[in-house]
Amino acid sequence: MASKVNRRRFLKGAGMGIAAGAAAKVAASAMASESPSDAPAIPLPNAQTKRAAGGTAPTVCCTPASRLIFACSGAADVGKIADLAARKLSEEGAGKMFCLAGVGGRVKGIMETTKAAQAILAIDGCPLHCARNTLLQAGFTKFEHLCLSDMGMEKGKTPATEQAVAKVAKRGKAMLPK
Amino acid sequence: MKVIQVLGTGCPKCEKLKKNAEEAARLAGTEALVEKITDIGQITAFGVMMTPALAVDGEVKAVGKVLSPQEIKAFLQ
Amino acid sequence: MAETNPQSSCGCSAAPKLIFSCSGAADVGHISDLAARKLTAEGAGRMFCLAGIGGRVSGIMVSTQSAQSILAIDGCPLDCARKTLEEAGFTEFEHVRLTDLGMEKGKTPATDEAVAKVVCRAKARLACSGKV
In which domain, by residue range, is A127 found? Predict the structure, then answer.
């Protein structure tokens, strides 16, 4: 009951729209027979196969709401850039920024939505890889990972300019499915 | 071999922690490399907020305090 | 870590007051994030990486255990920041929720005014926090 309430509250509050509602329904039905602990991060093949067999194109196929982006949003300059890049990607529709804190907090609605994602991108500001580690700790193993230090952005030496944010967003976009 | 890293920019507390780490390795009878990290960039790379701090084999064990040799020895066993 | 290089002192200064924000995807999450950074810039506390708590990053976990006090800022009643800290075993911390300030998810643009309101409430909490 609690999880249903959380999911409803989340969808209503986040204003994710009808597409997200459809995504959640598919995820919910697909997830019904699986225990949360061993659920994969990428959506279940069964859901898509059923739709394809019906002769109609899947209604849930890489919609923005199912391409989730998590940023470390850390305290340093590179954490700020990661945060802003995720928001930028979300605004541009390349994916949907999602709440990493909800994964760390094991918030049911957020966990279930993440399990149902078509694709996940984790953006970390520095080699501590906090976002990546948060996902791993919560049992998610299939995701793309972008670390700003790999792009030459060093903690404490990289002001959060529009240029820096755009550079990261561009790289992140290339790592997400179209 | 255990690698003990003492993180600190260089003041009496950091020096004391380093000495205690060396003593802990001796008490434990463990072969250990005790390394002092003084570079701020390297210190923050550990995710540490205050110094002195102590890491054993890359894992931070204590922050903001000077552990005794006995306390450090416990991390080596 | 703050945006400017942190002043690492060898235990001579007091342990920091750490601030964790949910930094969630919605407007209220963004305000939480901006408020935490502003509080740090103004010296009221030090924003720290909540993701490092969720990720159980040793340096961040141990630093948080040594903090003078902790403040968690959540954008909405899902209370993700609070739950992240609790999942990791932290039970003693102050908590500010933007909903309690009348800020509703999806209806509260991240303006300077909104951030300032949160900063004000957070400062009050930080002022009376701290281990005896």
Answer: 2-175
Per-state percent for chain A, helix, strand, coil, to nearest 5: 55, 10, 35
Q: Which residues contact B15 (CB under 8 A, 6 or more apart)?
A: none
How many CB atoms lie under 10 A from the CB of residue A4? 11
Question: B46: nearest CA in chain C?
Answer: C59
Which residues are CB-neighbours of A9 under 8 A, at least 6 positions away? A109, C77, C78
Phi-psi label, residue C75: left if phi above 0, alpha if psi -120 to 50, beta otherwise: alpha
Indicate the Cα dihedral angle B8, B11, B16, B21, nearest 10°.
20
Please count the helices (runs of H) and the strands (runs of E) in chain B.
3, 4
pTM score, two decimals? 0.77
Q: Which domain holds residue B20?
A: 2-76
Prediction ipTM score: 0.90
Q: Three-state SS string across C72-115, please?
A: EEECCCCCHHHHHHHHCCCCCCEEEEHHHHCCCCCCCCCCHHHH
* Number of independent structural domains in chain B: 1
Residues A106/C87, Cβ–Cβ less than 8 Å: yes
Using an 8 Å Cβ cutoff, are A115 and A164 in contact? Answer: no
- Interface probe for B, chosen from A78, A124, A128, A132 (most Cβ of B below 10 Å), is A128
**Residue to substitute from B40, B42, B44, B60, interface A, most A β-carbons within 10 A:** B44
Residue-wise pLDDT for C3-30, tens only, equals 444 444 444 456 899 999 999 999 999 9
Q: Which two tokens stand for residue C106?
A: 């999806």
Q: What is the DSSP pairing of strand A119-124 with strand A144-147? A: parallel
